[in-house]
Amino acid sequence: MPTLRDVARAAAVSTTTASDALSGRGRLPEATRRRVAAVAAELGYTPNLTARNLRRGRTGAVGLLTPQHTAGLAYYMELAVGAVEAAHAQGVALTLLPAVEAPGNGLHVDGVIVADPALDDPVVRSLARAGLPVVTCERDPTPGAAHTGRVESDHVAVVTELLDHLAAAGARRLAVLLPGPETAYGQDAQLAHQRWCAQRSVPALAVEVGLTARPDRVRQAVTELLDAPEPPDALLAVPDGSAVTALQTVRARGVRVPEDLLFAAYAGGPAIEALDVTAVDLAPRQMGQQLVRLLLDVLADRRPAGTCEDLPLRVVQRASTTRPPRNP
């Protein structure tokens, strides 16, 4: 197998220059980087990742921590897939971490990605105390929390956009299933709904079902809304995993969507798309990729600690919020 020294000799540069060119370090002319990369590809050179990590005092692995009870939820599964893809592309292993409190310094990882950190999460506090670099998906709602970096989306703006869309589609009594306030995502969804209702002087018709809403809780909430003296004519299910159960409950009651009830979900995914439900493309795969790249960039001093990146979202309108024209 060709070595780094073979690459340096063939490219007529020093071993240090060859190493810097292939790793992206140092201040080298772009032409030099391209020449070294071309020579390495021609020789079939593959870096020894274990040796490289030992030289840098690294493990060559990063951790991914997701909220408890999220196994099977489409968003977090897709986020993990994106994180694995980005880590593999840079020769780094990704380890899924259990959401249990443990000494952070006992983990054999160079840094940790935390998806939707919860308010005063003891596991996240443990990681911070151990001095491990932490990059979060959405901001940490814990007062005073400061981490290595984060990637976030403007959920207030997007929830507002969804509510505006439902109103424009004809909703006059709009109900919302909301996550709790333990995460920034949940806080932003609640804030957006409260502001939207206050600005229009309409009642804030909402039921909190939790971040990872249990099917029985969702069925109970939807049943209560439909049995109210003035039932809603539109329903937005915000928590991931709540929309399918909510839609099943609505249809089991003989309520037609969208003729009798406009229906939308916040978290999209294959199941939501198959049901032709208006939803938000949360881009979880892209989120996972951005999180890994940001963490690795900070570890390699390519980005400063405290960097915050934005992930734009879009509302995808489908049949569930498009009422057919009335017959004359």
From TrEMBL:
<keyword id="KW-0804">Transcription</keyword>
<dbReference type="InterPro" id="IPR010982">
    <property type="entry name" value="Lambda_DNA-bd_dom_sf"/>
</dbReference>
<dbReference type="Pfam" id="PF13377">
    <property type="entry name" value="Peripla_BP_3"/>
</dbReference>
<dbReference type="InterPro" id="IPR046335">
    <property type="entry name" value="LacI/GalR-like_sensor"/>
</dbReference>
<dbReference type="Pfam" id="PF00356">
    <property type="entry name" value="LacI"/>
</dbReference>
<keyword id="KW-0805">Transcription regulation</keyword>
<dbReference type="InterPro" id="IPR000843">
    <property type="entry name" value="HTH_LacI"/>
</dbReference>
<protein>
    <submittedName>
        <fullName>LacI family transcriptional regulator</fullName>
    </submittedName>
</protein>
<feature type="domain" description="HTH lacI-type">
    <location>
        <begin position="2"/>
        <end position="56"/>
    </location>
</feature>
<keyword id="KW-0238">DNA-binding</keyword>
<dbReference type="GO" id="GO:0000976">
    <property type="term" value="F:transcription cis-regulatory region binding"/>
</dbReference>
<dbReference type="GO" id="GO:0003700">
    <property type="term" value="F:DNA-binding transcription factor activity"/>
</dbReference>
<dbReference type="InterPro" id="IPR028082">
    <property type="entry name" value="Peripla_BP_I"/>
</dbReference>
